[in-house]
Amino acid sequence: MSEAASTRTPLGLLPSLAPLLRQWLPEQRWFAGKGYAVGGFSLVSATELLPLNGPGPGLLHLLVRVTQRDVPVRSSADCYQLLIGVRETLPPPMAPALIGHLSDGPLAGRTVYEGTRDPRLAALLLERLRTPGLLGPLRFERFDGAPALPARLPARPLDAEQSNSSLVYGDAYILKLFRRIHPGPNPDLELPLALARAGCARVPAPVAWYGTSAPEPFTLGVLQPFLPGSRDGWVLALEALAADRSFQGEARELGRVTAEVHTVLADTLPTVKLGGPQTERLAAAMVRRLETAAQSVPALVPYVPRLRAAFDAVATLGGRGRTWAAQRVHGDLHLGQILRGPKDTPWSVIDFEGEPARPLTERCRPQPAVRDVAGMLRSFDYAARTHRPWNPGWAERCRAAYCDGYAEAGGDDPREEPELLRAYETDKAVYEVLYEARHRPDWLPVPMAAIERLAALD
Ligand SMILES: Nc1ncnc2c1ncn2[C@@H]1O[C@H](COP(=O)(O)OP(=O)(O)O)[C@@H](O)[C@H]1O
Ligand SMILES: O=P(O)(O)O[C@H]1O[C@H](CO)[C@@H](O[C@H]2O[C@H](CO)[C@@H](O)[C@H](O)[C@H]2O)[C@H](O)[C@H]1O
């Protein structure tokens, strides 16, 4: 591992840590570079949050660039946030957090582990957020007007399938730690903040955050109120399917929520009109993503020409002078991103980071709102497809109810722009094929079924 003079790790820990990370990183759910060997690491920053050679557990905050060989699309050196715990021995309940044992250097023999799994270390992060200020390159901030944070809330890691890592404090707050990080404003902070400031009650309003301004500006973690006892739309949809119950009422409400969020985002953040060349660029980007996905997932290849037609149709309309409004959007809206508390409390939308695999600049660009609609429509199809027996009618009814709700609450009825909706649904299904191939190969048939359906449309 290379260490620049200005960014050495405390106690020169990195050389002995690197071989352990090389093994451990690719096994993490949040590691984006699966399938390609980890080459080396270069250090962006290292901060000792708790002394590493003290009597108790130590905590090292690292930002590291990971180089990977033969990566075809993404940058070959993604930057990750790591929280490394250091102890003499790991208590048995924390065994799954093990990264390995240091074999040399001043800490030889010590155990290193995933720090977020240690309640003592997790508690320290909240403590830092309670008292804003600088610690090395890390800046901890609280939002103006947010109430003071209580001390000593018990911490637990969230046990969820997720692209990042989250910690829950006393069922009152949730801290999301971004894993693969990108320089620049993070939409998962920017958008909820804009919505909350505009008085939109559809998001848990951020209360504190931390990040760096140098060597690069990164947002590393955001603290929001935890919605206790909440369940997401995916779980509720599967429950309805299992009970052979309609989900149309919920779908309609979800359409209304989506329109409400879109209206506030369009009112508070920049909007543009897409026409002619921009539309052609948009369609060309969809074609590129399709071709790239087909290189990684050969099952897509036979469908490429028919799927491409959906993107060409949009480019053609743009060429004929059709324009579309574009605004900031959620970017990865699906049933798992909408939570509802107990006793029919209103729905809240979470996770405005966009699709984690897309470049950040692209995710932050104004886009047609129908992109989010397409994401939700795909999600009803996903739910119906994962249930046995397959219930296509259930999905169709939900999709119609969702569009009804969206139009009722002031959104443009997505069905009135069939070419754009189809292009975005196709683009999403292509993304899902790649996502499932990388992360959940057993699920690949779910988006592939949609690919087959979309390719068969006239
Ligand atoms: N404010 C919240 N209250 C309760 N649970 C939450 C909250 N925010 C997120 N969660 C839970 O955490 C999970 C992961 O959050 P998410 O923002 O989607 O992370 P990721 O981007 O890592 O997938 C969600 O599926 C949900 O179960
Ligand atoms: O981790 P994120 O929630 O940001 O999103 C990624 O993972 C999702 C799965 O956890 C994935 O969503 C796909 O599967 C869902 C069911 O698990 C389904 O409801 C979605 O419609 C489907 O796209 C999402 O695409 C991915 O970005």
Overview of this structure, please?
This protein is α+β, with helices and mostly antiparallel strands and 458 residues long. It folds into two domains: 4-225, no CATH class; 231-455, Aminoglycoside 3'-phosphotransferase, Chain: A, domain 2 (Alpha-Beta Complex), CATH 3.90.1200.10. The protein has twelve helices and 18 strands. It has helices spanning 14-24, 119-130, 187-197, 233-242, 248-268, 276-296, 304-319, 360-363, 370-386, 392-408, 418-439, 445-456; strands at residues 38-50, 58-68, 77-87, 98-101, 111-114, 133-135, 138-142, 155-157, 165-169, 173-177, 180-181, 208-212, 218-225, 231-232, 272-274, 324-326, 338-340, 347-349. The strands form four sheets. The protein has a seven-stranded antiparallel β-sheet, with helices on one face. The radius of gyration is 23 Å and the shape is globular. It starts with 13 loop residues before the first helix and ends with a helix. The structure holds adenosine-5'-diphosphate and the ligand O=P(O)(O)O[C@H]1O[C@H](CO)[C@@H](O[C@H]2O[C@H](CO)[C@@H](O)[C@H](O)[C@H]2O)[C@H](O)[C@H]1O. Adenosine-5'-diphosphate (ADP) is lined by residues 158, 160, 162-164, 166, 174, 176, 204, 224, 226-227, 230, 232, 336, 339, 350-351, 353.
